[in-house]
Design brief:
The chain is built from five helices and no strands. The N terminus is likely disordered. The chain is an all-alpha fold. It is flat and about 55 Å long. It is about 90% helix and about 0% strand. The protein has one domain.
Length: about 160
């Protein structure tokens, strides 16, 4: 259960992060994207030809996935803000919408899995899925370290 909560928190954080960073500071978002590109390119060991075919497909997938994530975040935020005033029917409708967005995200992955298999060897496609998780873990570790450095020491 604890790992499920962590996964949900990570999904929400990282799907909210791009929009939040863009509004806050475009150069931060640019740096994050540059880090992602470098990380994936290095880990997948993309050839120039592979990179040329891969990045447009991957960027399109990420854009569409982020749009769905933003819809999920808005839905969860609306629920959080209004939950005391919502009827069971309204909550059920929101829950159903959330599940539909999850399905939409899964359907999107299926479509882009097929597209990725056309531009990369299957071993690199599978490695991409692993590398995406590694990058998320890397970002979480960076946040933890930053948070640890910024916590003032308490004198007891």
């Amino acid at each position: 259960m604890k790992s499920f909560r962590i996964i949900i928190a990570c999904i929400l954080f990282f799907s909210f992060l791009p929009g939040h960073l863009k509004a806050q500071n475009p150069s931060r978002m640019d740096r994050l994207n540059a880090q992602r590109v470098a990380f994936i390119t290095e880990k997948l060991q993309l050839t120039p030809k592979e990179a040329q075919a891969f990045w447009p497909v991957y960027n399109e997938y990420r854009r569409k996935r982020n749009e769905i994530e933003q819809q999920k975040i808005k839905l969860l935020r609306d629920y959080s803000i209004n939950q005391a005033d919502l009827s069971d029917k309204e909550v059920e409708k929101m829950a159903d919408q959330y599940v539909q967005l999850e399905k939409k995200e899964t359907d999107l992955l299926l479509v882009y899995h097929g597209k990725l298999k056309k531009v990369l060897p299957i071993k690199k496609v599978m490695m991409l899925y692993r590398v995406e998780r590694q990058f998320t873990s890397y970002l979480l570790q960076q946040l933890r370290e930053r948070r640890t450095r910024n916590i003032p020491k308490r004198n007891f």
